[in-house]
Write a structure and sequence with these properties.
This protein has 194 residues and is an all-alpha fold. Helices cover 79% and strands 0% of the residues. The protein has two domains: 1-54; 69-193, no CATH class.
Length: 194
């Protein structure tokens, strides 16, 4: 696309410099067409770059969530790191108590990873160039969180080391909703200062 636009701009320059005054079908000179093409291309690349900066973190974080929902995120595998840390922090705690703490940490991880997802979705939709996304950013952000949480838990139901649970989906959604509310109040405060 860039190559074609560059060739078109080059050919317009060449025709303009041969001393003749070329006009297009709309009565504009070729130089006006060239400026219009370059302006459109610059705006296209600006908007494209802005979209990438808005949506790439959201997509990457969703990929992190789906990676964590694989066997690598199973309780058996996370206990390799978390259990020794808990035993060091709570040396007098019994094995079942450490297991309970481990479960709390895993549930807190559910809450926080979907809060982070909600933040990235809220940020992407708040600044969107599409009016429908920008106007109802909170709805789109929450739907994104619920959709990814549901697909994640459904995916875990096929893994023998993981269990898909509706309660985890509700926990994920509550983490997302909490962050959406926080995001709303922060952005409202920032707007009122301006």
């Amino acid at each position: 696309m860039i190559f074609i636009d560059a060739l078109l701009a080059f050919s317009l320059d060449r025709k303009q410099n041969d001393g003749k005054n070329y006009e297009n079908d709309f009565g504009r000179s070729r130089s006006a067409d060239r400026k219009l093409i370059l302006s459109v291309n610059n705006n296209f690349f600006f908007f494209r770059r802005e979209r990438i900066l808005r949506y790439a973190p959201l997509i990457l974080w969703a990929a992190v969530i789906f990676t964590a929902s694989s066997t690598a995120g199973a309780s058996k595998n996370t206990s390799i790191v978390i259990r020794p840390l808990l035993e060091w922090l709570f040396p007098a705690a019994s094995g079942p108590t450490i297991d309970i703490y481990h479960g709390y940490i895993r549930k807190l991880a559910h809450f926080t990873e979907y809060a982070a997802l909600a933040f990235l979705a809220s940020r992407a939709f708040w600044y969107s160039s599409q009016t429908i996304l920008r106007r109802f950013w909170f709805v789109w952000a929450f739907l994104t969180v619920v959709l990814i949480a549901s697909v994640d838990e459904y995916n875990q139901s096929f893994n023998s080391l993981r269990t898909g649970s509706i309660y985890d989906t509700l926990l994920d959604a509550s983490g997302g909703l909490t962050m959406i509310v926080i995001f709303y109040f922060v952005m409202k405060t920032r707007r009122s200062r301006n």
